[in-house]
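Subgroup meeting minutes
Present: P.N., E.W., G.H.
Scribe: E.W.

1. P.N. recapped why we're keeping a running log of single-chain structure predictions: easier to compare across weeks, and new members can see raw inputs and outputs side by side.
2. G.H. added today's entry (167 aa).
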Amino acid sequence: MRVFELGRVFFQDPTIEPSDTSVKGVRQPEHLAGLAYGTADAPQWGIKSRRVDFFDVKGDLERLAFPLTLDFVPEVFPSLHPGRSAGVYLDGKRIGLIGELHPRLQQAYDLPLCPVVFEIDVEPLLSVPVPEHKPVSKFQKSLRDISLACKDTAFHDATKFLKDKST
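Output recorded in log:
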């Protein structure tokens, strides 16, 4: 099972002024949160069943952010398993977190398996650069090349020599 939610979160920020889309003193960034639980793939005969893990969800986030490159730095968060969590960074700035749910919360919710969760700020992911067209060179790269400069009679002898060597 994999679920996600896209929505606004609310932080106190005295620098925010009231407007048509904001409330005085409240910053409202959009965040994406998700949870992965159970087996990594649907049951099938071709592969052995395995539980979803940190690296499955990390790969999901990397595909979501492509072509941007995310960095995952080990960190400790109160709601996540110590030693199995990381901060999600983009260009040196933390934009979220990822990890397994803390064992005390897993027990409190009576979960037999440990879910992997994440939460990231969406705004930094929206700054994806537009692909840029680069023309193809008229002078294509050559891996092998041979050049001969000789008289007409020497050319005939050289081609005969090359043919004899290749057989």
